[in-house]
Amino acid sequence: MIDLLSTFLVVDGRMIMMKKKITSKIANCLCGGVKIRIKGKLRHVINCHCSQCLKTHGNYAAYTECPDDKINFINKTTLKWYHSSKIAKRGFCSICGASIFYKLLKSENISIAAGMFSNPTKLKTHSNIYTKGKLDYYKLDSRIPKFNRNSR
Fold first, then answer.
1. pLDDT value, residue 23
2. Which domain covers residue 77, as residue numbers?
3. Is the predicted pLDDT of residue 84 greater than 60, yes or no?
């Protein structure tokens, strides 16, 4: 989805209206109880192999990210939050069970499960993190950087 944002410039004493494309992306859980619109760019995907992601997603978690102020909730009637640690919480759908968000409490950004978006996402996998916790039934792509901890 593309929104148009009007910007006015003054050139040689004349006001000129310019339209700028603002890309927005829609994401939703399986049942649609949680639906969001993101305005602007998303960070490329980071695959997290930590024990919490393995337990909440049933596999490693593929997350993108955006600033909190770029997310607009279209529907959040089934959104529930679980404080998974002293520093973070996780958002999930109370109906279909989808793991949707990871939020560090002191961060101004929110991580969003990349599978919530439909194609074309134009996202690429950036890295694998917490790979020490990776389970033995899958292999990592050797072309993608890997880190035993967080890549930041």
1. 77
2. 26-133
3. yes
Q: What is the pLDDT of residues 7-41, one digit of tens each?
A: 555 555 665 555 555 578 999 999 999 999 999 99
CB 24 within 8 A of CB 1: yes
Beta strands in the chain (DSSP E): 2-11, 14-28, 34-39, 45-48, 61-67, 71-76, 79-82, 88-93, 99-104, 109-113, 125-129
pTM for the full predicted model = 0.82
Domain for residue 56, yes or no? yes
Q: Find the CATH number of the domain harbouring 35.
A: 2.170.150.70
**Nearest-angstrom CA–CA distance, 130 and 52:** 11
| Residue 85 covered by a domain | yes
Contact by Cβ (8 Å): 32, 106: no
Cα–Cα distance for residue pair 134/140, rounded to 1 Å: 9
Number of folded domains that form the chain: 1
* Residue 8 resides in a domain: no
13 domain-assigned: no
